[in-house]
Structures are given as structure tokens and as C-alpha cells.
Design brief:
The complex is a heterodimer of chains A (230) and B (256). Chain A is an alpha/beta fold. In chain A, 33% of the residues lie in helices and 27% in strands. In chain A, helix 3 runs antiparallel to helix 4. Chain B has one domain (3-252). Chain B has eight helices and four strands. Chain B has helices at 3-40, 45-56, 60-72, 85-113, 125-162, 173-192, 195-202, 229-252, and strands at residues 205-208, 213-215, 218-221, 225-228. Chain B has a two-stranded antiparallel ribbon with strand order 1-4. A two-stranded antiparallel ribbon of chain B has the order 2-3. In chain B, helix 1 packs across helix 3, helix 2 runs parallel beside helix 5 (125-162) and helix 3 (60-72) packs antiparallel against helix 4. The interface between A and B is medium-sized, with 31 and 33 residues.
């Protein structure tokens, strides 16, 4: 489904990703975990075909990732940016016009679930509500790959857990590969099948969450502490 | 809604603010020209200022595109799109042209209106006739030049954002852009000076006097306009090549 073959991405002297080889399977939800500047966002952008490796290959569904990968990948950016003159409804209409797999009915359901006012301009929305809209747009697509970069940042902690639970009903566990890069481990721990630890552009470990719990008796947070604070 | 229509409507919306700024500037110019006309008691001042505004429209479309691209450069919203890069660019050009056409037509109308019913002294007869008779032809020339410059804006914007992925030049991208501009300009003038190009340019040239005008004792522009089909062909070819290279960069190299 998603394969990284000796992928390196450099920015100046820094490595966003260094000679990384791994693959992600269909029907699984992955947590991409690491401190700030570890390479999480760049890794997701490479999967989305928005950033190109300095060397190596990123393969999505058997094809090298490029701009056209957007047809198979729904990508939620960590950036809090929207076209300021757009209303919520404009954003939905625009997304529906660009992506053939955009499910307008599902988008309407999600808008109701997220309690977003369709007529409100995006610049008038709170950061949290803009975050909700990003989730609506990503989850309304029927894509084999769903990439979420810090999807819960800006969301009110009081509603975060309920939103995460609600989102489960919009993920196709049979067909979709979901990769979530986040710091908010607590709320998404129950979602994750596998976790990927990344630091300084190096993939430190990939573990199955159930095995972690059963064989090592560790929660994801405990495992992260072991990995990142040796 | 088709993907192009979606892109076009989006591009209209994100450039609307720039368009309204242009309209405000035009209003300011109208008020200013009327004020100067009264102050200097010179009825031709509005016509001259509106004429300058018409000519300045050559930078309208490139400016509009640059502003729109700068908005897109702030996030991945635009580039995370399965449509061809050509479609993304053409939508921007079409949206920019929509605003451009409104703006230049309004300015040309103001320019023409400012001359109507005006008895012009002999000193300004040449300028007045030029505006009256050749404004549309000039507008067409300005529009084509504007499109040509706009394609170069697409190219340099794409190149600038493509250089981000090359660590060694990432910090000096503006210098690289300047260097590329100098190199391309030098190559262009070297090609123009070859004997083959001189022969091509000499053939099919015809002259028109659309820019022949005098103002007072001085010459506004006394040169004849030389129109050459070979030159027009070269510019069309350059426009197409630069556009295709820009699309290639956008699809394969640009990172924002």
C-alpha cells in the first residue's frame, strides 16, 4: 500500500528523513509519533506527493508518489490555513469539484456532527472550528489512504475525545490505510493498530500496539518514553 | 461542478480583494485627474492620465497572478490536487484575465470619455487622435504583452519554489532567480542578433503609425510601430514553451 525505499529527505544539513525503509499495510491505522521537528510532517507530505525525496522512492499503491497521488490520498495539513474569503460551504463545494471521490452527503453529515455553520466565513471561525473543517474535508473523501497531520491540534480538549470516537464511524477499516501524526496520544491510543517512532529523521521503531500491551505490558505513552528518553 | 469551474471560482474569490484595490486606485485616479484638470485649467489631463493607466495595465495580469500564487504558496491547499498543473495555472490566468478585462475596459472607456466633447487645441491634436482611433488596437497589444509577462511570472514562481528542494541554494533563491533571468535575457538577445534571426525578423515586417503622436512641441512617441509576423510567432512559441516548463516544474519540482 505505502512503501518507503531508502528514502532520504534533506533540508540543508538537516535530515527530515534519513535512509528510511518501511511499509504500511492496507486496513491499518498507524500513529506516527515523535517530538517536534522529528520528520513526521515531511514524511506525511512525501506520502501525499507534496514533497519529493532527496533520494529513494516513496511508493503509493504501486506508483511513485507525485502530484497525482492526491487522487488516492486524502491529506490533512497541520497548517491552519484556508482561503479567508471562503465560507464553510464554499470550501465544501471547492473540495467536491476537485476530488471525484468526495462524498457530499458524508460531508454534510460530518458538518452536522462537528456543529459547523455552513454560511460562516472561514476567517470568522475559531482555530478549533477550522480544525474541525479540515477533518470534515479529509474524512468526506473515499480514498485508500488517509493522512492526518496533527488532526486534533486546536480542538478543545473537552470535545476532543468525543470527536475522535465519532470519527471512527467515518473510517473504512477494511480498505483504508490511515496515518496519524500527532502529539495527542491519549485520545487516539484506542484507534491505533501500529505505532511508528521517528526522531531526527530516523525511524526508531515500528510496533504493533496490541503486542506492546500484551507482551511488554506497555501503553503507547510508556513505550514512547522508553524510545525517546533512553 | 467541473474541476476547472471549481478552480476558476476559487481563483476569482481569492483575487477579488486585489481587484477591488485596483478599482479603488482607478477611482482615486479619476478624482485626482479631475482635480488637476480644474487646478491647471487643462481639459486634456484626465485623458493623459487615463491613457497612462491603460498602458500600466500591462503589469495588471502579472501582478494579479503573482498575488494569487503567493496566497497558494502559504499552504498545500492548492497543490494537493489530482488535476494537471496546466489546469491549475490556466484557471489562475482565466480568473486574472476576467478581472483584467473589466479593469482595462473601464479604464479605456474613461480614457475615451475624457476626450469626448472636448475641443482640443492643435498642440494636442496628435495625442487626441491617437487615443480616439487606436485605443482598441493598443489595448489588444497591451493584453498580449500582459499575457506574455504573466507566463514568465508563472515560470519564476515555480522555479523559486522548486529551488527549495536543493539545500545548497535554498537560502539564496532570489539570487538564483536573478541569475537565471540574466542568463535567459542574454541568451535571448544573442539569438536575436544571429544572422538567421535578422533575416527572419526582416521578412514580413509591416509598419503602422498607431503610436505616432505629438503633444505640444515635443514628441509623445514619434516612432512607427513595426509589426512582424515572425516576431509574433517567436513570442507565441516562447509563451507556450515557458508555460509548459512552468507546468512541468509545478508538477515535478515545486514544494511549498
Amino acid at each position: 500500500m505505502i512503501a518507503f525505499e531508502h528514502v532520504t529527505k534533506r533540508y540543508g544539513r538537516d535530515f527530515a528523513l534519513e535512509d528510511s525503509t518501511f511499509s504500511l499495510e492496507r486496513g491499518k491505522i498507524y500513529g506516527l509519533l515523535g517530538p517536534n521537528g522529528s520528520g513526521k510532517s515531511t514524511t506525511l507530505k512525501m506520502m501525499a506527493g507534496l514533497v519529493f525525496p532527496t533520494s529513494g522512492n516513496v511508493i503509493i499503491n504501486g506508483k511513485k508518489a507525485d502530484r497525482k497521488t492526491a487522487a488516492d490520498v486524502a491529506y490533512l495539513s497541520e497548517l491552519d490555513f484556508f482561503y479567508p474569503s471562503f465560507t464553510v460551504n464554499d470550501m465544501l463545494k471547492y473540495s467536491a469539484s476537485q476530488f471525484a471521490d468526495f462524498d457530499r452527503t458524508r460531508a454534510e453529515e460530518l458538518l452536522d456532527f462537528m456543529k459547523l455553520d455552513r454560511k460562516k466565513k472561514l476567517k470568522q471561525l475559531s482555530k478549533g472550528n477550522r480544525g474541525r473543517l479540515k477533518l470534515v474535508i479529509s474524512l468526506a473523501r473515499n480514498t485508500p489512504v488517509l493522512l492526518l497531520d496533527e488532526p486534533f491540534s486546536g480542538l478543545d480538549p473537552m470535545v476532543r475525545a468525543s470527536i475522535v470516537k465519532g470519527l471512527l464511524s467515518y473510517i473504512d477499516f477494511e480498505k483504508q490505510t490511515v496515518v496519524i501524526a500527532t502529539h495527542e496520544i491519549d485520545e487516539i491510543e484506542m484507534l491505533l493498530d501500529d505505532v511508528i517512532a521517528i526522531q531526527d529523521g530516523r525511524i526508531l521503531a515500528i510496533e504493533n500496539v496490541e503486542e506492546l500491551r500484551e507482551t511488554k505490558g506497555l501503553s503507547i505513552l510508556e513505550w514512547m518514553k522508553q524510545i525517546f528518553e533512553p | 461542478m467541473s474541476s476547472f469551474k471549481g478552480l476558476y471560482l476559487k481563483d476569482l474569490k481569492i483575487s477579488a480583494a486585489t481587484f477591488f484595490i485596483g478599482l479603488v486606485l482607478l477611482n482615486v485616479l479619476t478624482i485626482l485627474s479631475l482635480g488637476l484638470k480644474e487646478y491647471f485649467d487643462e481639459p486634456l489631463i484626465p485623458a493623459i492620465l487615463f491613457f497612462i493607466a491603460v498602458v500600466a495595465h500591462v503589469f495588471y495580469l502579472p501582478g494579479m497572478l503573482f498575488s494569487s500564487l503567493q496566497i497558494e504558496g502559504q499552504s498545500q491547499l492548492w497543490l494537493h490536487n489530482p488535476n494537471r498543473g496546466a489546469k491549475l495555472f490556466l484557471s489562475k490566468i482565466t480568473a486574472g484575465m476576467t478581472f483584467y478585462m473589466i479593469s482595462i475596459l473601464v479604464t479605456m472607456l474613461l480614457s475615451r470619455l475624457s476626450l469626448s466633447g472636448l475641443s482640443v487645441s492643435n498642440d494636442y491634436q496628435g495625442f487626441s487622435e491617437m487615443v480616439r482611433e487606436n485605443l482598441l488596437i493598443m489595448g489588444a497589444g497591451i493584453t498580449l504583452t500582459s499575457i506574455y509577462l504573466s507566463v514568465w511570472v508563472l515560470f519564476y514562481w515555480s522555479l523559486y519554489h522548486s529551488l527549495k528542494r536543493i539545500p545548497i541554494v535554498n537560502q539564496i533563491r532570489w539570487l538564483v532567480i536573478l541569475f537565471v533571468w540574466i542568463v535567459l535575457s542574454t541568451i535571448g538577445s544573442m539569438i536575436q542578433n544571429t544572422s538567421m534571426m535578422r533575416v527572419i525578423n526582416e521578412k514580413g515586417t509591416f509598419s503602422v503609425s498607431i503610436f505616432d503622436a505629438t503633444v505640444g512641441q515635443g514628441s509623445f512617441s514619434t516612432e512607427m510601430a513595426h509589426i512582424n509576423f515572425a516576431t509574433i510567432g517567436q513570442y507565441i512559441l516562447i509563451t507556450i514553451i515557458v508555460f509548459l516548463v512552468s507546468v512541468w516544474l509545478l508538477e515535478r519540482k515545486v514544494e511549498v
